[in-house]
Design brief:
CATH superfamily of the largest domain: GAF domain
CATH topology of the largest domain: Beta-Lactamase
Number of helices: 11
CATH class of the largest domain: Alpha Beta
Number of strands: 9
Strand order of the largest sheet: 6-5-4-9-8-7
Shape: elongated
Number of domains: 2
Helix content: 40-55%
Strand content: 15-25%
């Protein structure tokens, strides 16, 4: 019979079933703060030790688990991941009052969007739907390209220059409508202005007949944590551009614990 050390040298398993077993492993480890032996895991999960070892080895190598004195315990990377997940869960609740205030002031659909750096998309994690009959109506959880949306360009504008350059030159900047800006140099100029003015406006670029205004919610270190967004049909957005812009910029600044500098909004309107 092969030893545990011999078993660890075998190739890793990779399948949807293996992924589900990993979640089972993590749940079991979460129930045992003092750690669990391979034999205990095998018994608790009704799975052969050889199969479990193929799953455990890469997780240990990446620092998500630690093996010490024959027992497996949660590692430092797992605790960092857990903290990030908890923070993401709490974050929309903390910002919700500003989302509600924006919805009340504009009576339009409002969103909270964050950057998915891995997928290079803007993901909309909270929303309040407009009470109007004709409204901007995309469901919670949808994703949009960074280059063609107000939220996306705003989030992109505050990334490091190298990341921006890589994104603009590796992404298929295909037109979504006849108004979509697809030239990297033009988008880069827009990003520079957005970073300075702290507001992004997109009209008919991602969806025909619709547009949005986005402003950044800043973290304590000056990093952008999310985009506060008001979205509306094009005709109504153009008609109310000034008032909607004031509302989203002011409330995003309040959510960031800051105030809008005097004259800032006039500068924004001059460039739109």
């Amino acid at each position: 019979m092969a030893s545990e050390q011999d078993e660890e040298q075998r190739p890793q398993a990779s399948s949807p079933r293996s992924a589900l077993r990993i979640f089972g492993l993590l749940e079991a480890l979460g129930r045992h703060g003092e750690g669990v032996s391979l034999a205990q895991l095998s018994n608790e999960l009704s799975s052969p030790k050889s199969s479990l070892l193929m799953l455990l080895r890469p997780i240990v190598a990446e620092g998500y688990l630690v093996r010490a004195e024959g027992r497996y315990i949660l590692g430092p990377r797992m605790y960092r991941l857990a903290a990030e997940l908890l923070n993401t869960r709490r974050y929309p609740r903390a910002v919700r009052p500003y989302l509600e205030a924006l919805a009340e002031r504009t009576r339009e659909t409002v969103y909270l969007a964050v950057l998915d750096r891995e997928m290079k998309l803007a993901t909309f994690i909270d929303m309040i739907e407009s009470p109007r009959t004709i409204k901007f109506d995309l469901p919670l959880g949808f994703t949009r390209p960074l280059y063609a949306t107000a939220a996306g360009r705003l989030l992109l504008a505050f990334q490091e220059p190298a990341w921006q350059h890589d994104y603009l030159h590796s992404t298929d900047l295909k037109p979504l409508t006849t108004y979509t800006t697809t030239e990297p140099e033009t988008i880069q100029r827009d990003l520079t202005a957005i970073r300075r003015l702290k507001v992004a406006i997109s009209i008919d670029e991602a969806v025909d007949g619709g547009g949005a205004i986005a402003a950044p919610i800043m973290g304590p270190g000056g990093e952008v944590e999310a985009a506060l967004v008001v979205a509306a049909p094009t005709t109504r957005l153009r008609k109310n551009l000034s008032s909607y812009q004031h509302a989203v910029v002011e409330l995003a600044a309040e959510a960031s614990g800051a105030s809008v500098p005097h004259g800032h909004l006039d500068d924004v309107e001059a460039e739109v």
